[in-house]
Amino acid sequence: MKIPFTRPYRTGNEQKYINDILTNIQNGAPISGDGPYGKKCEQLMEEKFGARKVLLTTSCTSALEMATRLINIQPGDEVIMPSFTFVSTANPVVMAGGRPVFVDIDPVTLNIDPAKIEEAITPRTKAIYPVHYAGVSCPMDEIMAIAKKYNVWVVEDAAQGVGAKYKGKYLGTIGDFGCYSFHETKNITCGEGGALVINRDDPDLIERAEIIREKGTDRSKFHRGQVDKYTWVDVGSSYVQSEILAAFLFAQLEAMDEINQKRMEIWYKYYTQLKPFEESGVIRLPVIPDYAEHNAHIFYVLFQEQSVRDTVMKQLQEAGIHAVFHYIPLHSSPMGQTFGCQDGDLPVTEETSGRLLRLPLFTGMSNDEENFILSRLKQVVEELRRNN
Ligand SMILES: Cc1ncc(COP(=O)(O)O)c(C=O)c1O
Fold first, then answer.
1. Nearest ligand 1 atom to alpha carbon 193
2. Does the CB atom of residue 160 touch ligand 1 within 6 A?
3. pLDDT tens-place string over residues 209-251
4. Cα-Cα-Cα-Cα dihedral sign, residues 15, 18, 21, 25
5. Ligand 1 contact, 297 CB (< 6 A)
6. Residue 63 Cβ < 6 Å to ligand 1
7. Relative to the CA of 272, which of 63, 120, 144, 183 has its CA 20 to 30 Å away?
8. Distance from the CA of 61 to the center of ligand 1, in angstroms?
9. Which CDD domains has this protein been placed in (predicted)?
């Protein structure tokens, strides 16, 4: 048996909605962005999440770039973020001339540690970018209190957190901005895609976001008939999502709860069957704090040390199971080191990165696939327990 790390799921309606566009092209149905399907996706998220404004984008990376531009990050500005994240959290800050300030994570949740955020605040701090790792919420009350105290912005990197909650509130709707990913690897997908959530009730901010998303022009106002021509009014880029992708995405968004529920069943099957090995001390399983309702985006196992993790990963891969690890901490990467960081700076991040293994987890995984992964992993872990 060969089990991929991820396999995109189809709800059955993607084809129907895309065909709808294709058959209506002659009648003027758009295939560029901001058409009826794009609007439906945005409206669905605004209503479901209780968000002030949602704008579909080409990716979460572009949503993070938009947020970074909206808060006017300038050369010399500092943005506090975890190092245990994907490069897209940091790249927009660097592109704007700012400096990412990497801080350590909490060893229990693997999310940014609020105490470390406060230690890293300086007069140059402009924003905090918390990342909801694995779709498990960061402690947002504490982060928002720090942001208020020092008057800095909060941009939630909720790439992995679509449909997950913090104290009953959807991730992405708590900070000033939230950024979602609909990449192929995510719970809800259209191949490549994302969304920016704007939570401040500020019409000027929303209008500027539309301008930045439309290459720096006021084309959105022109489409609404609010101006009779459109022109270049700000610095922007091409961040609007194509209508064809939005049609695919709409089918997935409509099925969000069902998709997340299916993933949750696999997640808990892994959790309950591996729990006895956690009790015997050979592995550690994810911890979901009381304040978080997660979305089963990632299932990871922490081993006692990197050499063990590497051996287990190799054994699973030899058995045809594509288990993987991430992240190479950003602060110790070649690019991260250009910001004056080095190995040893963030011990929890570094040792977590060496011990973590992600198991395949995707909607539509068969019982046979789940059982095969579990039986092979249990066998390997049982050997570890005996040799312990
Ligand atoms: C934490 C985090 N931020 C940002 C991204 C970037 O998302 P996208 O591929 O939609 O640009 C990812 C994607 O894996 C991610 O995991």
1. 10
2. yes
3. 999 999 999 998 988 899 889 999 999 999 999 999 999 999 9
4. negative
5. no
6. no
7. 183
8. 6
9. AHBA_syn
Pocket of ligand 1 contains residue 181 by CB under 6 Å? yes
Atom of ligand 1 nearest to the CA of 61: 11
Ligand 1 geometric centre to CA of 24 (Å): 33
pLDDT tens digits for range 110-164: 999 999 999 999 999 999 999 999 999 999 999 999 999 999 999 999 999 999 9
What is the radius of gyration, based on Cα positions, of the chain?
22
Look at the alpha carbons of 114, 338, 341, 122 in this order and tell me if their dihedral is positive or negative.
negative
Q: Does the C-beta of 295 come closer than 6 Å to ligand 1? A: no
Q: Distance of alpha carbon 383 from its chain centroid, rounded? A: 35
What is the greatest pairwise CA distance in the chain?
76
Q: Is there a contact between 187 and 163 (Cβ–Cβ < 8 Å)?
A: yes
Q: Which amino acid is at 39?
A: K
